[in-house]
Amino acid sequence: MNYDAVIFDFDGVIGRTMEDNCRAWDVAFRKIGIVIDQGRYFLTEGMNTKGVAEMFLAHHGASSSLGDEVVSSKERYYLENNRFEFYPGVIELLQKFSQRFQLGLVSGAGFDRLKMAMPSNILKLFSVIVTGDHVEHPKPHPEPYQKAVRMIGYEPPRCVAVENAPYGIKSAKNAGLYCIAICSTLERKYLSEADVIVNNIVDIDSIISGQKNSGEVYAIS
């Protein structure tokens, strides 16, 4: 299959942000007496901030009315304390792909946070950006990828999604996209619904280019 578009998740795929996000959530929840588990949080990646807050509040039997307070506290701490960096090879890969494909970005992050994190010269490589505050139903619902595909102008089978967590994979697959999962934050066993699993984002080049068997699953180092 030849592809026309590659659509990336942001947190844990392009940006090494999950650890800083988890730290910010931990600080925000501790203010109301809740301690969150990092592993459980990583499994929620792709969900928007409101959904993450509501899920942990419900899990700990706390009132959903605390959601806005927790989200505001989390976002404030993250913006003041994050140390944003791209995963190795990401910038070169995006620049290369921008010459061959239409690029999209589908993230559960809010647009303001994404815009502040990404240098403008990299952000402009994406012809389509869909963030958590642009959809009614966030991941794992297919709406984020459905919207991106409509905006980018290709049928879903002509598009590849690059994800790193179950919610994003489910969203992409239910929208009809081919999905490559990266073991950046979770073990392979959590990513089994993807079409192919790789260790490193730079591995997706050879897969999309058809140089390797699309059914191959790369071992976790």
Topology:
Layout: E1 5-8, H1 18-30, H2 38-43, H3 49-59, H4 67-81, H5 90-97, E2 102-106, H6 111-117, H7 120-123, E3 128-130, H8 143-152, E4 159-163, H9 166-174, E5 178-182, E6 196-198, H10 204-208
Parallel strand pairs: 1-2, 1-4, 2-3, 4-5, 5-6
Keywords:
DNA polymerase, domain 1, 2 domains, disordered C terminus, globular, 221 residues, Rossmann fold, 6 strands, single chain, six-stranded parallel sheet, alpha/beta
Number of helical stretches of at least 4 residues: 10
Extended strand count: 6
Tell me, briefly, the overall form.
globular
Distance between the termini: 28 Å
User: So, the CATH homologous superfamily of the largest domain?
Assistant: HAD superfamily/HAD-like
Q: What level of helicity do the residues show?
A: 25-40%
Strand order of the largest sheet: 3-2-1-4-5-6
CATH architecture of the largest domain: 3-Layer(aba) Sandwich
Helix vs. strand class = alpha/beta
Kindly provide the name of the CATH class of the largest domain. Alpha Beta
The helix/strand series, from N terminus to C terminus, equals EHHHHHEHHEHEHEEH
Structural description of this entry:
The two termini are 28 Å apart. A six-stranded parallel beta sheet has the order 3-2-1-4-5-6, with helices on one face. The protein has helices at 18-30, 38-43, 49-59, 67-81, 90-97, 111-117, 120-123, 143-152, 166-174, 204-208; strands at 5-8, 102-106, 128-130, 159-163, 178-182, 196-198. Helix 3 (49-59) packs across helix 4. Helices cover 40% and strands 11% of the residues. The longest helix is centred in the middle third of the chain and has 15 residues, at 67-81. The model is unreliable at 211-221 (pLDDT under 50). It has ten helices and six strands.
